Amino acid sequence: MNERRRFSRVNIIFEAEVEFQGRVYSAEIINLALKGVLLTIKDFAGKKNDLCEISITVSEDVIMTFQSKLVHHQGNNFGFKFETSDLDSISHLRKCLEFNVNDPKIIEEELFFLATGHSE
């Protein structure tokens, strides 16, 4: 079976929050990638294509923030695509991914792929 995923996913333990329609939901990260995140969220009311803000706390001083779109869900597991973010968040995301993959060059290649206009 062919793997259709283009971007590496890492299992990582950070606190995450989803802000949606004026409410903040605590979330557990299942996996994280350059293009998005898979979260477990209890009692989340979002539907496919809804927009929200995801904050991932790396440390007391580092919080990554992403404007995101809900692209799929099954039960309490929700997959979000990162739509926009600030440069600091992207930089921290890159470092987190590089630190947690076997070969950090993979993340560099994925960033190049994104920078050249590919998104899938």
UniProtKB/TrEMBL annotation:
Gene3D superfamilies: predicted glycosyltransferase like domains
Protein name per its UniProtKB record: Type IV pilus assembly PilZ
The species this protein was found in: Gloeothece verrucosa (strain PCC 7822) (Cyanothece sp. (strain PCC 7822))
GO molecular function, one term: cyclic-di-GMP binding
SUPFAM superfamilies: PilZ domain-like
InterPro entries: C-di-GMP_BP_PA4608, PilZ_domain
Pfam assignment, any one: PilZ
Ranges for domain PilZ: 3-98
Coiled-coil features, chain-numbered ranges: none
